[in-house]
Amino acid sequence: MFRNKEYVLAVIREGGFSKAAEKLYISQPSLSATIRRIEEKLTVPIFDRTTTPITLTDAGREYVKRANEIERMERDLEQYISDRVNLFAGEIKIGASSLFSSFILPKMISSFNKKYPSVSIKIFENNTKNLMRELAVGEIDIVIDNAVIKNEALSSVLYASELLLLAVPESLAVAPELGDFALSACEVKAGKHLEAKYAVELKSFIGCPFVLLNSENDTGKRADLLFKKHLLTPNVLFRLDQQMTAYNISSTGVGVSFVSDTLVKNIDSSAAMRYYRLKDAESARNIYLYQKSNRYHSIACQRFVEHITKLSQSTE
After folding, report:
1. Yes or no: is domain 5-68 CATH 2.60.40.420?
2. Helix (H, G, I), strand (E, B) or coil at 27
3. For 83-160+286-314, CATH number?
4. What is the CB neighbour count within 10 angstroms for residue 239?
5. How many beta carbons lie within 10 A of that of residue 202, not counting itself?
6. What is the mean pLDDT of the chain?
7. Dihedral angle sign, alpha carbons of residues 291, 292, 293, 299
8. For labelling, which of 25, 36, 176, 274 has a CA lying 20 to 30 Å from the CA of 265?
9. pLDDT tens digits along 112-133
């Protein structure tokens, strides 16, 4: 009954019979007939054809769940055999936000490929929620993210730590006494912001307009937590999805944004911006490499995680 499971899965993934048939390079009548035969073996329908768009029955949902599990096990077995035949060859699919895929992944990939040139790497950019969903179903192998994900189905390895800073345009008026605590991008790149003596209170900037990220984003979530912690109500001009976008808007002089030192270390230092470290412990966070637990990880994936964590430790 699972012999032609890919037909059922294609209908779900493509959202209908016509697109699934096109994806499978078969006619729609042929696809429908194949699924009918599967339903006859099950003795119950998989799809409720009275709804628009078509939906799964209870039995159909269970079938799809099992079919996905079998498909994953097949992929794991294929990868296991491939590893034994072609040692250190293969493909790694890595998911990350646009920030990490722009600033962190290129260095990782360059270093790894020098040691393992026969391994190809594909990058998938998305938000945390979508990346974790794709990781859970096996569409990607590794996710690099700074969000803390508590899920027994996922395992994590610490890659690095980072600090959230306030990015403040030089044209924006702030309290004169903050002058001694302001840091340039060059000073952040030199690690000067790691010295606790430069830490300031968030309330010192409450008179400024803010450019924040949405609460689904870890940076936005932490910013909201800090305002709530200090009983502050910020003047929010924008709520955005990407940290880089928030920074770019801030750099035009519009308002203050929360940015990671990871971003500051990788951008042009010429922007008329100043950076401030916050006293709050919540401004510190980790970057993790996430993988799905209880599944086979290719030798290529294992070597990638080992290589990157060693590389991170050597640069600390």
Report:
1. no
2. coil
3. 3.40.190.10
4. 14
5. 21
6. 89
7. negative
8. 176
9. 998 888 889 999 999 898 999 9
Cα distances (angstroms) measured from residue 112 to each of 10, 115, 218, 315: 35, 5, 28, 15
| Bond into 53 cis (ω within 30) | yes
Report field, pTM of the whole predicted structure over 0.85: no
Upper half-sphere CA count for residue 97 (Cβ side, 13 Å): 21
Q: State percent of the chain over pLDDT 70.
A: 97
Domain boundaries, the chain: 5-68, 83-160+286-314, 161-284
Q: How many residues are recorded in the chain?
A: 316
Spell out the residues 6+ positions from residue 313 whose beta carbon is closer than 8 angstroms to its own: none
What spatial distance separates the first Cα and last Cα of the chain, rounded to whole Å? 54
CA distances from 129 to 190, 191, 267 (A): 33, 31, 26
Higher pLDDT, 86 or 77: 77
Integer CA distances (angstroms), 154 to 134, 180, 182, 294, 305, in order: 12, 44, 39, 9, 15
Residue 85's pLDDT band, with cuts at 50, 70 and 90, is low
Question: Cβ neighbours of residue 31 under 8 Å, at least 6 residues apart?
Answer: 7, 10, 11, 17, 20, 21, 24
Contact (Cβ atoms closer than 8 angstroms) between residue 71 and residue 5: yes
**Region of residue 120 (left: phi > 0; alpha: psi -120 to 50; beta: else):** beta
State whether residue 31 is helix, strand or coil: helix
Calpha distance 161→277 (Å, rounded): 15
Can you give the pLDDT at residue 24? 87
